[in-house]
Amino acid sequence: MKIALAQLNYHIGNFESNTEKIIQYIEKAKSEGADLVLFSELSVTGYYPHDMLERKEFVAKANLFVNEIAKKCIGVAAVIGAPTINEGERGKKLFNSAIFIQDGKITSLHHKSLLPTYDIFDEYRHFEPNNKFDVVEFKGERLAITVCEDLWDEQPTSNEFGKDKLYQTSPMEELSRLNPTLVLNLSASPFSYNQENWRKNILISKAKNYQVPIVYVNQVGAQTELVFDGGSVFINSEGEVVKELAYFEEGFKIVDTSYIGKKELQDKTGYIEKIHDALVLGIRDYFVKMGFKSATLGLSGGIDSAVTAVLAVEALGVENVRVLLMPSKYSSQHSIDDARELAENLGIQYDILKIQDVVDAFNKDLQPIFSGREEDVTEENIQARTRGIFVMALSNKFGSILLNTTNKSECAVGYGTLYGDMNGGLAVLGDVYKTDVFKLAHFINREKEIIPENSITKPPSAELKPDQKDTDSLPDYNLLDEILFDYIELNKPPEEIIAKGFDTEMVKKVVHMVNINEYKRFQAAPILRVSSKAFGFGRKMPLVAKY
Amino acid sequence: MKIALAQLNYHIGNFESNTEKIIQYIEKAKSEGADLVLFSELSVTGYYPHDMLERKEFVAKANLFVNEIAKKCIGVAAVIGAPTINEGERGKKLFNSAIFIQDGKITSLHHKSLLPTYDIFDEYRHFEPNNKFDVVEFKGERLAITVCEDLWDEQPTSNEFGKDKLYQTSPMEELSRLNPTLVLNLSASPFSYNQENWRKNILISKAKNYQVPIVYVNQVGAQTELVFDGGSVFINSEGEVVKELAYFEEGFKIVDTSYIGKKELQDKTGYIEKIHDALVLGIRDYFVKMGFKSATLGLSGGIDSAVTAVLAVEALGVENVRVLLMPSKYSSQHSIDDARELAENLGIQYDILKIQDVVDAFNKDLQPIFSGREEDVTEENIQARTRGIFVMALSNKFGSILLNTTNKSECAVGYGTLYGDMNGGLAVLGDVYKTDVFKLAHFINREKEIIPENSITKPPSAELKPDQKDTDSLPDYNLLDEILFDYIELNKPPEEIIAKGFDTEMVKKVVHMVNINEYKRFQAAPILRVSSKAFGFGRKMPLVAKY
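The joint structure predicted for all components is written out below.
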């Protein structure tokens, strides 16, 4: 049988565009001789519509478009993803369904059984789990049609509790009793660099274990924080990946299950390159799907804003990125020079706005209220917030989106000013530790110097008071990032981190900083997620808690 | 049997304080002759610890404190709430448990079956549902011990899909087969004014239906956004409420199930008074539990900041509230006078800071970049953001928390400036529609004029340009709020709202404004929730969606 894998970029709630795309690929599959074309999970709505699923008219509209797609699907079969109504007496109102279409009609529904409800997943909020299993007989094959998590019932990564199976049921156990000859999987599995092989390994192990080939189609493209990386595969019953679609872009491929031919795999890339590609796609899709073209940001001469600017240019084009240099009296001349050099290397429009007059005006007005009190973080924040107003003014006046340049290390320890440098519509590096920001900078400079070497090599500084260095109040980033990774990604207890050989006080201080800064992250811009545990809705911590 | 109802205010993760309180009330119950004392859901950790439940050391610590409580519980039995480990091979790692303690030992565990995962509830993220049911024989009674939602399996309110039962299992059906003589329920059910009787009615219907008395103990106190209102009850087997504890404060009462005596109920209060009490408690607990004493805010002379200031004074005391008046050249003299009059009526410290010098400095610096362009919302935002910096400077310098004064109507349609008047650590009125803010103002003034009458009667205006009125860009608040309520609280499709007789274009415009402003709400301060559907983590909408 010839199966087409359609790995597409959907837009949540944009039924017209998603439907048009699906129909177009149904036509393509048919014209290229496929028997069946497989799309990804919730392809009609885009993954994930969140509480739009609580709106009756949203679900009704999805079903209208499913019917429209069905009508166009003649001469080739298709499996698409959409929410369907649970007609039962009990339970959540919806199913997360794979819909099998033949000859212009819906011939069967296959509801998802295992509903991920952890990290960034929230499916039990909206969907009732399925507990009935069957296979579809189609052109001599017995197809087991599954939706994403149904293929893996393992605990999510970094589970310190050590239990093996997350769910009571195992759809693959149930389905394997029905002797399927082929497993289809509609997926929406977001990228994270430290889980990159985990997904493929699970698929391989399932194919091997059940001795059945698997066709896996993943969503591609970004939806605000989440970047879906594609990488759809066909795996034979020996557990070998024999066909693999591109990462971070749309793809289409027809697989002949009876004659597999030579392997077609993607080139291996390093994790920094993958993060780079994920961030560029994340920026681009945010703008495209929000209907914006241009970005703005403040260039400080430091490495974070430099890397953000480069990624923005790659995503949006030189003509759509405009930056502000906003030196204060504490800014070193080399910072200004580095920022200007970067802007010139990139060929982007830049302006220089000195913040001192405004800062002086603030301080003068506040003087009667503050008289007799020492300078403290208040005055540092006024500088950061003045810059925040300047870049937002540019953003407002020219209808561009402000990109936030905070990295994950800063975000973790609260090293940033709310309503100042934490401003922005999208946080590009908010899930990238500082040590990886350095690696990104080297990756960007791999062929020629785009980011001035000095921005990379000089000691990081916020330049909010004389001779300030990040290391005045933080450990070295090498140490800091390892502690943060253990605490945030791996959920390790502080005692375990200390037992690795870190200084007790340092670990306690870092953990304390992470915990007390939830209130800042609560108001942070959405963060492009590239790790297995990003700040944002995948890590909900109480604010008023005592730790 | 004599059962003590202990309705207490816990602090999430503050095991020491929660344990001390629980032990103190165990002693009290014992000394007053109770056989058993009942606490609320997850009382040892406080409800709700969110992803702290993913940390092994957090759960281990909870269990240590449970054991400590058990040791102290001699001569009286107790039922407390805590997470316990799921020792099974499969499923989530934890149970949400009621723990029965007698003679210094844990004698049985009763895990929650129905795990609410909708609106602000997220329990399936962390807990495995229970499916084994039993009763506890204790002093001649057969106790059915249930946790919160186990008593009600109805769909949440405002379900446009119209299905009746949210869950596959019904713990009360299961338990009733075991002939319980008394139902105990440990609860953590947050307040919302438009669901206030819903909870009590469900308890009444269950008691009647199963002809069994119910002892219901609810948590009281606020945890960031959520305000738990207490109102614990004893309901007899005829479904009559015979004892009722206070709302919005801690309470303790011993009920003799064999001799009920006269009814002891709370006075009825109107919904505006309840909202008022919820907000005062919400502010107070945020400060107490975050370890802060004092608040600051900007007083504009308008009604929102006036009501917020009054609530802050009630919650924190006159000496702990300090305000800034920040007139611009567009501020009317009466606004300044109204603000000053309010501050004087309340007796709070206030300062006047004119924003014009700073605004001029911003505009002067931006002039070369903006030259040739019309004034637009950019310049309005600069004013709002300049005020935002001033109040944050006060907050930083004096270690106080900025209270945000945005109301729900504004928050819904995006009528507010990010990093300007949207600043704040806590949004006091973010779940109160403008029309209810007026009612709150009248309630506050019920005995004497605290809020100047003029602040209440004048047409609302942001005063960011000459003669600006809210109605320039928004419908009248009476109309706006009804549309918003139907769309947000009731999830009605726009067509249904139009069918009620509203102007089609107006409804479409309002719905569009709600939808396109998710990005602003994403970065908003935490909002004290008083309705059945507040903005915040109980209403997650995708940002990049097309509606």
